[in-house]
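Worked Example 4.2. Consider the chain below.
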Amino acid sequence: MNHSKTASSVKRTLMHLIDTTGPGGAETVFLTLLREAERSSTQHVVVLRGEGWLAEKVRSLGFEPRIVDSKGSFNIAYIRALKKIVRAEKVDLIHAHLLGSNVYGALLGLICRKPMIATFHGAVDVAENERFLKAKFLLISQGASKIVCVSERLKKELAARSSLSSKKLKLIHNGVAPSPAQCLGGRGVRKELGLSDTAILVVSIGNIRPAKGYEYLVSAAAALAKTDPDIHFVVVGHQKAALFRQLEAQVAEAGDPPQLHWLGFREDVAGILGEADIFLLPSVSEGFSISTVEAMMAGVPVIATRSGGPEELIADGKTGMLIPTRSPQAIVEAVSKLKDPEVRHWLRDNAREEALRRFSLSSMLDEYNGLYHQLI
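Applying the procedure from the previous section yields the following structure tokens:
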């Protein structure tokens, strides 16, 4: 009997863990890896903490997610449930995303003696006020076979302020697929909002949460409303209720009502980017911003804050504009500069070429598949 042939013909099983249910950058990468997995010979088990947007997206890819509640710190019942799944499905490798799932995945790897990959998507995932952070880092360092960071800055930050093993840390930039040609151009959003073809659309994409710095965008929009009413700000992303109420109050208090449109979560992001004149990332803390790369690939000139990840994506003045964090005035000045079509075209062409070269989807998939093969 040819033992090597028999071993290689055995289907391997990967378990995918993530502790969120809604849309976001980490969730987009999670779904991208599953979409690629659908075409592989490997078997896949998906575990989610609850129903919602992500569960429906997973089902649309042909996988039925296991729903297991993971609320609370060090939820013993959750670990027991995961352990049963690992044994029943004969899981060979565990891949987790974000801090909570990374902790549980690492513990599961230790208990079941399975290789495990932990992926961190940004510094906000490991905030210093996180409960039991030192213990969680220690557990991940012990249980993870590889610890993936989506940006060089995040990798350096985790190495500097945690007990995570530097030998296990690995950089894999998120990969992005270019928008289909039919999504670029058109005037769907302009028509929806009743805007003229001459209006300048400044689009921001990202869920409304503290790290995104939308209060500075509101201040900038209010300032520009006084001098340039043709500039309209469009914000796309899930609206966290408490913070969104604060932003609405800030808008109401502005002397001149800002030309600001909150669109909420949308599935037609590529089409909206196709109509944008400028893309704005106002974050105060950011890992690898998928929406920024999507904008670059769509040929939209980018303004981004120096908030961590963007400095790795953009060469200031060549492929986009980098500005200080927490500065409405810097946003106003950058948007004013990009009103010039020639400046926009220069940045747009350079950015698209750079994004396609450095942040391709195939490159990310090759890196992860290499890890899978190495660890199984």
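The CA atoms of residues 43 and 76 lie 26 Å apart. DSSP finds 16 helices and 13 strands in the chain. Compare this with Example 4.1 before moving on.
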